[in-house]
Amino acid sequence: MADSILVPQVGQDLTEAKVVALHVKLGDIVKKGDVVAEVESEKASFEVEAFAAGTVIQLPYGVGDTATVLQPLVILGNPGETVGKAETVGTSGTAPQALQPESKPTADAPPLSQTGDGFRSSPLARRVAAVNGIDIKRLNGSGPKGAIVLRDVKSVLQGGMRSLASPGQHADASSINTRSLRTGTGDPIVFIHGFGAELAAWRPLVDSIPVDNLMVGLDLPAHGASPAPGQAGFEQMVASVAVALIAAGRTRLHLVGHSLGAAVAAVLATQQGLDVRSLTLMSPAGLGPKINGDFLSGFLDAKSEPALKAWMLSLVHEPASLPGAMVRATLNAREGTELAAGQSRLAKSLFSGSTQLFSIRDALKQVGVPCRIIVGREDAIIPSDQTENLPGHVAIHKLARIGHLPFLEAAPLVGRLVAETVRAG
């Protein structure tokens, strides 16, 4: 007979909690006392333990979902057993032998902390405030006993207080589009694409990475399904991504980035509120001043498939490595949208002709987790020799006969290197 591990009641006045992590997948065998998930409210983060043993036969919620308290979070049973409609989420029935799990705060997120002067705030509010450079003690709290909670920080962001980017700007978590690339368990691997691309560019790589982690892609501002920001800039881009990850509960994660996305990932690894476990950076921008300005201009100006293909061939060493579908998808994404215009505005804040206007070298000095850089020796966009004189803890792989897209041109090797970095973290 099925046993349900319920979403814990993490506060007397709370009816919902966000699923931050699932440590089990369908078919896994769970023992009594195993931590099966983590959930987070505006008050605290909690680990959810199993108080029964069995096989996972249903997971009503996924990572990132908002779950209703006292509803089934994980359903255990015998292999091959199924559960009826009344036992699933969204029904008024109660799962048989429903077990209220013990929930305990995680080490890095104590419940509704209080300082000696009586100040109270939630972990999620503190994280978002820290990323945006907001002095949380200046805010008025609307939570229990006047505590500062997430909605208080959000209201300040909407009012345009100082953020990580610069005065007068704010980072909007809702502007960043994210999508699961592959299901899995444990700490998620978050993929950040390069300039002019989108999260779908990672699909050829994800199946070449021999790990079981959840894999998630995101669209940078002015890319894919993420709108262009009102005021573009590298710091604002980093802030927007950081707030989106924190708001989604993806605070403990591995980062994989390409080109501009690799630069964003490197700086994210130094931000408060994020627990980045490993970094894999492919053809990273920000290691030196040089970039192919002619490519940037031609890529942004191209209006037809032949013209766009002519420029995109610069991305690879072997022309056959560039799929025609990638060229068509890039062109189709621009048609009838403001995508190209938004990217052109963004490019002006990031590059000047053939010069990069930002650097990640200081960020790499601060990174204390496994970090691997993968570049192609024949990269025609960002010269591979800009990887010289990096900190000793950064592993560097220079691949022969590979251009700017190593994750596409050498997917099996790159997939294995990503896996090794993730396991090391």
Automatic annotation (TrEMBL):
Keywords assigned: Acyltransferase, Hydrolase, Lipoyl, Transferase
Domain of life according to the entry: Bacteria
The keyword Hydrolase is assigned to this record: yes
Coiled-coil blocks: none
Peripheral subunit-binding (PSBD) domain segment(s): 120-157
Transmembrane segments: none
Region annotation Disordered: where it falls in the sequence: 85-120
GO molecular function (one): hydrolase activity
Start and end residues of each Lipoyl-binding domain: 2-77
Pfam family, one: Abhydrolase_6
UniProt xrefs under Gene3D superfamilies: 2.40.50.100, alpha/beta hydrolase, E3-binding domain
Cofactor list: (R)-lipoate
Record's subunit section: Forms a 24-polypeptide structural core with octahedral symmetry.
Family classification: Belongs to the 2-oxoacid dehydrogenase family.
Identification of the protein by name: Alpha/beta fold hydrolase
Species this chain originates from: Dongia sedimenti
Lineage: Bacteria, Pseudomonadati, Pseudomonadota, Alphaproteobacteria, Rhodospirillales
